Amino acid sequence: MIPQALVDGLVSGATIGLGAVGITLTYSILRFSNFAHGELISWGAYFALAVASVLGASFGFLTAPIGPFSFGWSLPLAAIVAVVLNGILALMVDALLFKRLRAHNSTIIIMVMASFGAALTLRNLLEFTFTGKPQYYTSALQISVRLAGGIRATPDQLLSLAVALLVVVAVHLLLTRTAVGRSMRAVSENPQLAGLAGVNVAQVIRVVWVLGAGLAAVAGVIAGLIIQIRPQMGLDLLLPLFAAAILGGIGSVPGAMIAGLVIGISEALAVAAVGAQWRAAVSFVILIAVLLVRPQGLFGRPE
Fold first, then answer.
1. Do 194 and 201 meet the contact criterion of CB atoms below 8 Å apart?
2. Residue of 39, 221, 80, 218 lying closest to 138 (CA atoms)
3. N or C: which end of the chain has fewer CB within 10 A?
4. Which domains does the chain possess?
5. Whole-model pTM?
């Protein structure tokens, strides 16, 4: 039972890790906790659902399953479009709300409360548009394959885990090996000094919003593929996301992903040991423990 719980935890942890990367990047640059990030996960999942439905209705051959997976080419293509649409949505929210607050030098608590308002608005708009009924990318049933040690996993689960890890590696390389990444790190250290050094801070902020929203879209597609798509899915992930961002260390992309996997595994083990009703408590306990014992997280630097 424990080995199987580890596999299930890794899959759910990959979703948590991707979302946590977006949160840690946003906090590093904008210096506030964005509680609307969970809604970007939900919107990303629904964007992909809408686009996949249109592609499937227009080009039926795109719905034929790809190899051992439960979905056709309509879903990967829709996921790419969802990343773009989610980035546009994040830029719109920033332009309408957060950018105006930054222009007035609003305090952190005002930014945080504004993110709560944005989250409520996005969630209700999503439910109004798509209804609250759970939906799925595909109705196909998958038979899990046997792995080493009697562990079983579906092809969709294995693919989701691989995609999440590849995306995180790509983001890490972007931050460490490119000019955009260097500019982001400079703004993270000191926005005023970075601006004096010639870094376009406004452009960096836009890149962070698009990057974070894109990662949220990928996380939403993975969560929707493995479980189901619901307007509340982002809200349900919010506590694990922040727990992973803090555990991994604010600003650390690999740390956020590793912490997401840790929390996913911890939740799966708790479900196997004491029941699903204690799943949410695991993230809360980890969050409090990290804040008390090591506030900078596993890979963060003390301020």
1. yes
2. 221
3. C
4. 2-293 (1.10.3470)
5. 0.93
